[in-house]
Amino acid sequence: IMGEIATRLADVVIVTDDNPRTEIPETIRAAILAAAPGAIEIGDRRKAIHEAVAMLHAGDTLIVAGKGHEEGQTIGTETFHFSDHEEVREALQERAA
């Protein structure tokens, strides 16, 4: 549902991984993409955030949804440090450099 709503209301939608845990990430993304025509698929969340920031134009708003306050990403049975906030900040700094 989230992918369908996003593609209806946003100019650009990027579908990426959140916490796939032991599920197959490609399968999760495929289910979202099936209801989200025109969405871009970038499995690596860091790359997805950096690409989204690179696409921004003056007056645009970027919404990074899914993780919110979480500071980790669970892939398989391991949780790795990952912060959407840190990645957005880094991508913005790289863009400004």
Architecture blueprint of SSEs:
Blueprint: H1 2-9, E1 14-15, H2 25-34, E2 40-41, H3 45-55, E3 72-75, E4 78-81, H4 84-96
Parallel strand pairs: 1-2
Antiparallel strand pairs: 3-4
Helix pairs in contact: 3-4
Features:
single chain; 97 residues; alpha+beta; Protein-Tyrosine Phosphatase, Chain A; two-stranded parallel sheet; two-stranded antiparallel ribbon; 4 strands; 43% helix; flat
Describe what this molecule looks like in 3D.
The protein is an alpha+beta fold and 97 residues long. It has one domain: Alpha-Beta Complex (Protein-Tyrosine Phosphatase, Chain A), CATH 3.90.190. It is built from 4 helices and 4 strands. The strands form 2 sheets. The chain has a two-stranded parallel ribbon with strand order 1-2. The chain has a two-stranded antiparallel sheet with strand order 3-4. Strand 3 and strand 4 (78-81) form a beta hairpin. The mean pLDDT is 97.
Tally of distinct domains: 1
SSE order in H/E notation?
A: HEHEHEEH
Task: Compute the number of helices.
Answer: 4
* CATH arch. level architecture: Alpha-Beta Complex
Radius of gyration: 14 Å
Low-confidence stretches: none
Q: And the CATH topology?
A: Protein-Tyrosine Phosphatase, Chain A
Helix content: 40-55%
Strand residue percentage: 5-15%
Quantity of strands, as a count: 4
CATH superfamily: Mur ligase, C-terminal domain
Structural class: alpha+beta
What general outline do the C-alpha atoms trace? flat
Give the termini distance in whole angstroms. 37 Å
Largest sheet: 2 strands, parallel
Q: Quick one: CATH class?
A: Alpha Beta
